[in-house]
């Protein structure tokens, strides 16, 4: 059954990109053979055999993520000896759904949404971002038990200075107002496929007092599993030591030589509080550039068999 599990990675685009990133992480020392890493892949293989492979034979992602979730006490899988430098001020770019409207995991409370006229159909009104930003200092704003995280128990963050530099480039007034061009620029540089039907984007700034103690790491192929636009390897002196780098999707689609986006790092999940601050970036009106042809070219590599051999060794 392990051969079927390994073959599942090569059966779709995301799996091939995962294998390529895994090989880079392996060669760069970001992921190494260890009891924990081996146990992770063995557990994923068992889940594939008992559950996911029966339903869909190319589904390698769900068993791998479920295996990560079951490995209690392990947040990140970076084995590199060099640790990231102390964090500068960081922020996570999130959608209006994650901040306001998602019924099960939004950060702001339903009471705050109702009291301040933040229904989804108000998202394009001129005062929308101002109303959302004013909620920070008001009572009953935070959803009880809200966590700052993604699908898995960590957040992808970038430097706040990167977002503010983009804001200055798109400033239409001294107030640096949100704009659709700013939102699209940040989205393209982070390579995140947010909805683009007027979806508002926000920069969620982390409290300064937690940055010195929060667990964080440069993301590996395992954190980036399933993401079409994750790249584990970069050679760019503009990126801080110990950080990864996003792909600038617009530059990637245009086959530009310099397609490095913004610095990125993963940070453990945190309780949401009013110590976080958020400000609007703008409404997304346009989709990501079409990169299917370029992604397919990147995924087709003679190195895939070498990466499969790494997985096979981890399973033995």
Please describe the structure with a list of short key phrases separated by commas or semicolons.
single chain; alpha+beta; 2 domains; two-stranded antiparallel sheet; 12 helices; 9 strands; 15% strand
SSE layout and pairing:
Blueprint: H1 2-9, H2 13-28, H3 35-55, H4 61-70, E1 90-95, H5 96-101, H6 110-115, H7 128-134, E2 147-148, E3 154-159, H8 160-169, H9 180-190, E4 199-205, E5 216-217, E6 244-247, H10 249-253, E7 260-268, E8 270-271, E9 277-284, H11 292-299, H12 304-314
Antiparallel strand pairs: 1-3, 1-4, 2-8, 3-7, 4-9, 5-7, 6-7
Which spans have pLDDT < 50 for at least 5 consecutive residues? none
What count of domains describes the coordinates? 2
List the total number of helices: 12
Order of helices and strands: HHHHEHHHEEHHEEEHEEEHH
Distance between the termini: 12 Å
| Total number of beta strands | 9
What Rg is obtained from the alpha carbons, in whole angstroms?
20 Å
Q: Mean pLDDT across all residues, rounded?
A: 90
- Beta-strand level of the residues, as a percent range? 5-15%
> What percent of the residues sit in helical stretches (DSSP H or I)?
25-40%
The biggest beta sheet, please? 7 strands, antiparallel
Structural class: alpha+beta
Shape annotation: globular
């Amino acid at each position: 059954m392990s051969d079927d599990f390994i073959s599942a990675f090569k059966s779709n685009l995301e799996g091939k990109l995962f294998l390529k990133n895994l090989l880079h992480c392996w060669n760069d020392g970001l992921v190494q053979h260890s009891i924990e890493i081996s146990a992770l892949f063995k557990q994923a293989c068992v889940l594939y055999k008992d559950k996911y492979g029966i339903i869909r034979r190319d589904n390698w992602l769900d068993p791998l993520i479920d295996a990560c979730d079951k490995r209690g006490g392990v947040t990140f899988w970076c084995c590199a000896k060099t640790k990231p430098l102390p964090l500068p001020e960081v922020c996570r770019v999130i959608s209006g759904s994650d901040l306001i409207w998602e019924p099960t995991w939004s950060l702001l409370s339903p009471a705050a949404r109702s009291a301040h006229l933040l229904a989804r159909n108000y998202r394009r009104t001129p005062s929308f971002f101002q109303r959302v930003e004013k909620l920070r200092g008001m009572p009953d704003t935070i959803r009880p038990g809200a966590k700052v995280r993604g699908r898995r128990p960590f957040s992808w963050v970038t430097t706040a200075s990167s977002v503010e530099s983009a804001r200055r480039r798109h400033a239409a007034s001294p107030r640096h107002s949100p704009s659709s061009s700013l939102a699209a620029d940040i989205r393209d540089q982070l390579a995140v496929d947010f909805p683009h039907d007027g979806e508002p984007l926000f920069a969620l700034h982390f409290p300064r007092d937690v940055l010195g103690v929060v667990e964080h790491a440069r993301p590996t192929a395992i954190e980036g599993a399933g993401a079409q636009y994750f790249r584990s390897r970069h050679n760019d002196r503009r990126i801080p030591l110990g950080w990864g780098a996003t792909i600038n999707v617009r530059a990637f689609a245009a086959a530009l030589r310099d397609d490095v986006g913004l610095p990125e790092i993963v940070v453990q999940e945190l309780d949401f509080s009013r110590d976080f601050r958020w400000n609007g970036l703008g409404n997304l009106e346009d989709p990501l550039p079409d990169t299917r042809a370029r992604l397919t070219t990147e995924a087709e590599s003679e190195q895939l068999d070498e990466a499969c051999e790494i997985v096979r060794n981890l399973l033995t």
